[in-house]
């Protein structure tokens, strides 16, 4: 077998590539955990600095666990969107970045309209950007790696 045009397959019959969705999901779960921890930690730091996270409409205060739950939920939604684009888009990474940035921009509207004090609004805006800065690059990079 000295023919340079022939490539031998791995002995086990398996290739080194994992299923694209499985790899994306793994990356997504790690990024989601990192985003959840980072957002909850940032909320705790803001709270320690005096931000009360009290929303006048209903008078409720957002608990730290609320930040973790909401971040985790929307991080999983980001993974689902990325998986759908990987499956059905010719350019999943590009489409994902545009979709995620658009959804992030839309998510900034409710804090501004909440009627909360300036410190709370500013902290909430920042806390929307924290998971976006973790999730969007991680999932976009993973999508690029699976389509190149």
Protein topology:
Blueprint lengths: L19 H29 L15 H25 L3 H16 L1 H5 L4 H30 L1
Helix pairs in contact: 1-2, 1-5, 2-3, 2-5, 3-5
Helix/sheet category: mainly alpha
Give the averaged pLDDT, no decimals: 90
Q: How much helix is in the residues? A: over 70%
Ends apart, CA distance between termini: 30 Å
- Rg is 20 Å
Question: What is the makeup of the main sheet?
Answer: none
The poorly predicted ranges are 11-17
What portion of the residues fall into strands of 2 or more residues? Answer: under 5%
| Series of H and E elements | HHHHH
Count all strands and give the number.
Answer: 0
What characteristic shape results from the CA principal axes?
elongated
Number of helices: 5
Describe the structure.
The structure is a single chain. With about 150 residues, the chain is mainly α. About 70% of the residues lie in helices and about 0% in strands. It is built from 5 helices and no strands. The protein has helices spanning about 20-50, 65-90, 90-105, 110-115, 120-145. Helix 2 runs parallel beside helix 5 (about 120-145). The longest helix has 30 residues, at about 120-145.
Q: Can you describe this structure in just a few lines?
A:
The chain is mainly alpha-helical. The protein has helices at 20-48, 64-88, 92-107, 109-113, 118-147.
What structural keywords apply?
5 helices, mainly alpha, about 150 residues
């Amino acid at each position: 077998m000295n023919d340079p045009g022939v490539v031998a397959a791995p002995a086990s019959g398996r290739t080194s590539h994992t299923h694209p969705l499985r790899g994306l999901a793994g990356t997504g779960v790690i990024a989601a955990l990192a985003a959840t921890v980072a957002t909850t930690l940032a909320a705790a730091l803001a709270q320690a600095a005096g931000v009360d996270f009290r929303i006048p409409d209903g008078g409720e205060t957002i608990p730290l666990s609320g930040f973790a739950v909401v971040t985790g939920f929307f991080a999983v939604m980001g993974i689902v969107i990325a998986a759908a684009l990987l499956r059905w888009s010719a350019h999943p990474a590009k489409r994902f970045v545009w979709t995620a940035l658009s959804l992030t921009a839309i998510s900034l509207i409710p804090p501004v309209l909440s009627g909360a004090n300036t410190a709370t609004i500013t902290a909430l805006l920042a806390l929307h950007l924290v998971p976006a800065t973790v999730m969007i690059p991680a999932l976009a990079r993973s999508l690029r790696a699976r389509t190149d």
